[in-house]
Structures
1.
Amino acid sequence: MPYLIVGVDPGTTSAFAAVDLNGKLIASHSIRDGGIEKLIESIRKTGSVCIIASDKKVSPDSVAKISASFNSQLYLPAYDLTGQEKLALTKGIKFNSQHELDAAASAFKAYRFYENKLRHVNSVWRELAELKEKPKISLDEIKHLVLTGYRLSDVLLLEEIKEQGKKAVAAPASKSAPTAFASSAKAREYAAEFERNLFAIAELKKQVSRLSTENQLLLEKIKSHEKGISHKLERDSEVRRLNSKIGRLEEYISLLKRALFGKKHATEQKQSERAKQIELKLKKVGVQNEDELEDLVSDYRSRN
């Protein structure tokens, strides 16, 4: 089965896209209401996973779970991929859904991140082929080991030790056969021990990488939480400020109402006193009410 860099887009409709170690898209698939278990099953049928990739700087927990299920490296971009960048990464390729496009963009982004390392493996492989020292292990398997935490020099050295052990075992019998047998057995033992150590180192590197990624995700979540708290505090502070302003405005309105009421009352009182003065003057000239005042005015106008 081919070795793969797999982009995933989990959700109600989950999707994955698989890119081989030469950067070629070999599969994309989406699953509705299947959960990550069916997604993992579909990926497993497609090939051997080297890298699981996401298009988000802070990926969902499900992405980390998918990576852990394959014991693979997890690639997260330094920033959330934009729609424009996703289209650029997948230019010329048609997909059945946006989810598959997102997954493919994640895979291509991860491939570009590791591309220089893979090119270096290609370069060393060609040099060894020219020297007729090409190892028995396949080029893609070397790339896979390098992507999963092995150093290229260690992989090549391990293959050389294994090959020497095989040659020692295949050596023709002679008077020194016991010595040759002991030597070959020691070579195999040394090769096995060396391979175990390399595997242990690679596994530790994976754990360090995984813990580093988890730590980064937790830091991002803490920052987001702190930002939310900060916004809440700012909002509460703004609410207190506005409530205080409302209180002052209500107090000012109350003062205005009292001032207006007092002015109106004073005006009404002044008008009342003026009316009383007029009434007294009219009584002095013999006018007792409004009708008599109108008769007096009419009489005055007729005379003049």
Note: Residues 175-181 have pLDDT under 50 and may be disordered.
2.
Amino acid sequence: MASRYVVSALVLAVVAAGVGYWVAKDDVASVAQAESAAALAPAAGAPESADNPKVARVGDDVILKSDVDALYTMIKQRTPQGMPESDQVFWMLTEQMIGGRLLLQQARAEKMDQDPAVQSALRLASEQVLQEAYIRKAIAGLDSDAALKPLYEKFLTSVKTEKEVKARHILVKDEAKAKDLLAQIKAGADFAKLAKEHSEDPGSKDTGGDLGFFGREMMVPEFASVAFSLKKGELAPEPVKTQFGYHLIQVEDMKDRTPPSYEEMKGQLQQQAQQEKLNEVINGLRAKAKIERFEAAGVPPLPKLPLQEQLEKVADGAPPADPAQ
């Protein structure tokens, strides 16, 4: 299984903000920070060799195959949808890097790299790259079945068995009409036929009032209360009033709700595993670090978060709080 890191939106916002490549159809678009990172790639790239030939030269700067491959990998890690194969976009990415080198060379010629604001931005970008590299290391392997299946089993044990009901209904605005139709059904009239002729619910009228299987939370309380009190094959003895009008309800079947499969939940479980690991790493580092916060003019006072208060108590020798409380 190819390694693919799905970092939560919160983590990306903090760690990889501003680094944005994406692929739409056959077009690769970029923003300035990521393009600058690609332009700087030679500083840490592999040396030129038979397996790593140069693919372009921009002035005195050489672009190697490994530089383009590294850019492709960076884009792939940040792309929520599928990426084309590298050979399909290789020369497009090479042109992307050429453009980045031209901009970089011109910026240096104008001594923009000596601007304090630019130096600060470069420092932040470098820190973000290191943070993201550490995150990838910390969450490595958390996309495997060995890591995710125990989480799925834990999820299954926590799921409450809930019922689903399959029912038909007829919706009308007038109570007298609802009672008349109910009397016809009790006398032997076909429920589905009357629904097609009289129901004012456009979503189910043409199917004879068939609502399919639904959970209690999917219906308004008045409707759900009656539907889930009936047995298979039963007809509600009276019209049920809701904000939509008057309903005649007939339950056709009921079953236990099936929890989502492992494959259906795999992406969610992966995000959960990665976020839990990241929280564990950060909290461990936080507990060992000396962190000071300072009041500053014009800055609102910092509220203490529950985790912060708990860590401070532990640092002072108090026992950790019971997580069940």
Note: The longest strand covers residues 245-256.
